[in-house]
Amino acid sequence: MLEAFGITRSLSAKGTPYDNAVAEATFKIIKTEFVRRRSFESLDELRQELSTYIYWFNHKRIHSILGYLSPVEYQQRLTSEFV
């Protein structure tokens, strides 16, 4: 089925359970904060609201692992250190 949509399946190498830990943690947060207990009238509504959520997640939501900065703020600080 994935091939029908042009999607290539990617798996971690055997014995490397932490390969995809950041992505898995991010998807867990999205499921917990955005998806649970919600329904959408259409695919377009889902896309719009998910886009809004991802913008908020990257620009406004603080992350403890990033020193209580948003990902964008964290990246800007790192970039300014090297410029």
Describe the structure.
- The chain has 83 residues and is mostly helical.
- The chain has one domain (19-82).
- The protein contains three helices and no strands.
- The longest helix has 17 residues, at 43-59.
- The chain is extended and about 45 Å long.
- The mean pLDDT is 89.
- One of its GO terms (biological process) is DNA integration.
- Residues 1-79 form the Integrase catalytic domain.
- It holds the Pfam family rve_2.
How many domains, as an integer? 1
Mean pLDDT: 89
* Morphology: extended
Major sheet: size, sense and barrel closure?
Answer: none
Pfam families: rve_2
Protein name: Truncated transposase
GO molecular function: nucleic acid binding
InterPro entries: Integrase_cat-core (IPR001584), RNaseH-like_sf (IPR012337), RNaseH_sf (IPR036397), Transposase_IS3/IS150/IS904 (IPR050900)
Features:
extended, 83 residues, mainly alpha
Which helices and strands occur, and which strands form pairs?
Elements: H1 21-35, H2 43-59, H3 71-82
Summary, kept brief:
53% of the residues lie in helices and 0% in strands.
